[in-house]
C-alpha cells in the first residue's frame, strides 16, 4: 500500500519533471525576445546615419574585386567608376533592399530543431572560425578534427544552441578537404544549422551538396530551403574581395542565408567615432546585401553588425566595451530601419576563461540581445578576440544563454500568480515552502543552473573549492562522453561519405576562387 | 628649439589628458541613465500588482512590533487589529505616499561628491554588511577594523562609487562601539555617502552626530540635509520589527534617507511566483515608506527591491537569476508608479571571485540598471549572497561599473561624428589610425580599462598568464597603498574623536532598542 503510493508519487513526479523539461525545451529551442529593444539614437539620428551611408555609397563607393559582381551591380544601374569602384544609386539600392525577407526560417534535418530568425525571434550560434582551441587539460593548441568533433558533440547537447559555426579549424586536414569533413561532422553529429565558409566556388558547392544529401532533398528543393548560413565580411574600409563576392553570389543562387558583416573596428578600419563607424558598417552591409538581392530577389539575408573599437595605445581589438554595446543598440535600429534580421555577437578579448571573459561576453550579449539582435554569432566558447575556442568558456556561455532563454519567457499575471490566497494563508512571519501554492509550482518555477554553484561556503570549501572554470571543464567532457549522434537515415550518411570519397579522390576543392 | 616644441607637445598632451580625466570624472560622479527602462509588465499588470498589494495591506495587514510605530499608523487612520497587526486604508496610504520626494540629493562633505538619485540619476554603493572578507593572500576570514579601513580606502579611489556601505563587520570592535569607529572611518577616509545601521536609537544618534561634526553643520541644518542612507528590511512576510521601526522613525526625524527593502525571496519568505513575490515586496515597501511620511511628510526615502528566488532543492538564496532580472525590471515600474527613487542591487551567490561571480553580478546589474534603478546597493565586492566582501570581486565590479558609466554617456550625431570627410579621405582599403579625425579624438574616444587585459595571447602568456582575479588582487592593494585621506578641517576630526572618546567612556550604545 505504502509502496504503491510512493510509486504513484514517483510516477507523478517523473511525469511533472518530464513536462517541465518539455516546457523548457520548447522555449529554449525558439527564443522570442519579449522586450522592446533599447535604442541608442533618436529616429532622426538613425536617419542621419542612413543618409550618410547612402552618400558614402554614392560618392566614395565600394571597391568590388570580382568581375561578375561588378557586372551584376552595373546591370541594375549602378555606375562603375575607376579602379573597380561601384557607385550606388540610392533609389535603386533601396528598391533592391525591399526584396529582402524580414524573417528567415532555417531548416534542420530534424524538423523539431528548425529555427526562425527575424522580428522578435532569436537564434544562437557557437563560436566560429578559431584557429586554436583550449581546455584546462591540454592548454591552448592548434585545432584538430578531434577537437572540432568534440565541440560539435557538446553543442548538440544544449537546446539553447541553434546554429553551429566552424567551431575550430581542423588544422590536421588539408585546406582543400577541410570543408568536406567539417560539414559532414556537423550534419552527422548535430541537429544544429550549419555554417558554410566562403572559401571559393568549389568548397561552397561541396558543402551545399553534403547538406542536400543530409536533408534528403532534390536539387530544386534544396535551393528553396535555407538549411545553412554563411558570413561575408567586407574588407573594411569599403571593399568587397573576390571570395566574398563569390560567396554572396553562390549563396543567393543556392538559396542559403548570407550574413553581410562589415569588420568595422572604430579607430582602425573605421572612423574613431561610433556614429562614423556605423555609417561605414551600414554602407558596407547595404552594398553586400543588395548584391544578393540582384542575384536573386528575396534571397535570405541578414544584416551583420560587429562594430567595436580598438585599444588606441596598441591597436588591439577590444570587445564587450561600452562602445561595443552602443553600436549594438544602434545596429538594431538600423536593421529594423530596413526590416532585416540582425546578426550580432558575444565576443571578448580575454585570454582566459576567467572573470574578464565572463563580464566582457555578457556586456556584448546584453548589448546584442537588448538591441534586438536576431542571431548571436560566437554565442559560446569564444576567447582572445576569436583566436581560440575554449571548452570552459563554452559551458560558461551556455549557462548565461540558458538564463536568457528563461528571462525571455513571459510572466503571467493572473489571480493564481498574484498569490493573494497564499499570502493571506501564510500571514505574518512564517514561510511559503510548504504551501500548496508553492508545491504546485516549485519544480518549474525557477531556472535550475547548469554551472552555477549555489551551495554555502562550507560545502563549497569541503568539496575542494572548485571554481566555475574548473566545473565548466568537467561539464564539457561529461557532455563529450555522453554524446549520442542524432537519428539520421544511414543511407544519407553513406551518400555523404561516398561524395567525400569522390571529392577527395579528385583532389578536393580549389579554395582560391 | 626641438626641445621647446617637444615640451609644447608634452604640455598640450598633458592638458588634453587632464581635460579627458575631468570629462570622465564628471560623468562617473553623477550617472544619468539615458535609456528608456525595460518593462516586464503592461501598465494593466502593474496596476494589478499595485491593487493586490493594497488588498494585502488592508486585509492581512502588517505586523508592527514597535509601539510608537503602531501609534503613528493609528494616528493617521490606519486600524490596529489583534496581535499588533496594522490594517492599511488604501486612500490614506496613497495620500501619505504623495508626500515622498521623487529625488533625493545626498551631500558629501566634499561638495563635488554630492550625488542625486531619482529620475534618470543613479548612484552606486559598495557591498555592505558582510561578516567576512577575503582576498587571495589572506583567504576568507571574519572582518576587522583594518579590513574595513582598507575597503574604505579603495572605495575612495574610484569615482564610480558614490555611496559606501558597512563594507564588512569589524568584529574586533565591541558591538556597542562598532558604529562609532565605522562612521568615523568613512567620514575621515572617504568622500562617499555613508550608511547608518538601524541598530537602535543610541547607535543611530551617535552616527548622525559624527556625520554632523564631519559636515560642520548645526543641529537644525543637519536634520534638513541628507548626508547618509540606511536600509530597513521588513521581516518578510509582512512584519516590521522593533529595530526597523525605530530606525524608520529616527531617520525621518533626522532628515536622513531611508530605504525600505523587503527581503522577499520567492519560494521562501514570499510566494513562489514572481508576481506574487512582487505583491508582497510592494505591500511591505509601502507600509514602511508611509511610516516615514507620517513621522515627517517629505522625509527622503527610497523604494527598495531585492526580490529574488531560492534554490528549491536546498532553500539556498540565488541571485542574478532570470527571475531576479524580471523582478528588477518590474520593480522599476512599481517605483515609477509611486514616483519614488528605486534601490536595487548587483548580488551573486558565488563563493569565489570567479566567472560565476562575474556573470551573476552582471545579470543582476543589467536587470537593475535597465529596469531604471536609481541606487545600486552591493555594487562592488559582494560574494556568497553577502556573507563575504572580496577584494578581487571589488575590483572586478568597479571595472564593470566604469563600463556602465561610459555606456551612459550619450553619443552625439553631428557632421563631425558622422565622419564623412574622413571616410572619403581614407577611401578603399587603408586605415584610420593616422587621420586628423582620429588624432583629434583618440585620447578620449574609448573607455580605457582598469582590469581588462587586451594584450595578445603571447604577451599574456609571457607575462605569466595572470588572470583577471589575480590582476584584481594587485590593483586592490595598490589602491590601499596609494590612499590619501580626503581634505577635512582637522578641527572636525578632533571633534569626532572627542565625541567617540566620550561615548566610549559612557560604555557605547545599547544596540537592542
Automatic annotation (TrEMBL), chains A, B:
It holds the Pfam family MTTB. The keyword Transferase applies. One of its GO terms (biological process) is methylation. Keywords: Hydrolase, Methyltransferase, Transferase. InterPro entries: MttB-like_sf (IPR038601), MTTB_MeTrfase (IPR010426). It comes from the Bacteria. GO terms for molecular function: hydrolase activity; methyltransferase activity. Its EC number is 2.1.1.-. Belongs to the trimethylamine methyltransferase family. This is Methyltransferase. It comes from Roseovarius phycicola. The lineage of its organism: Bacteria, Pseudomonadati, Pseudomonadota, Alphaproteobacteria, Rhodobacterales.
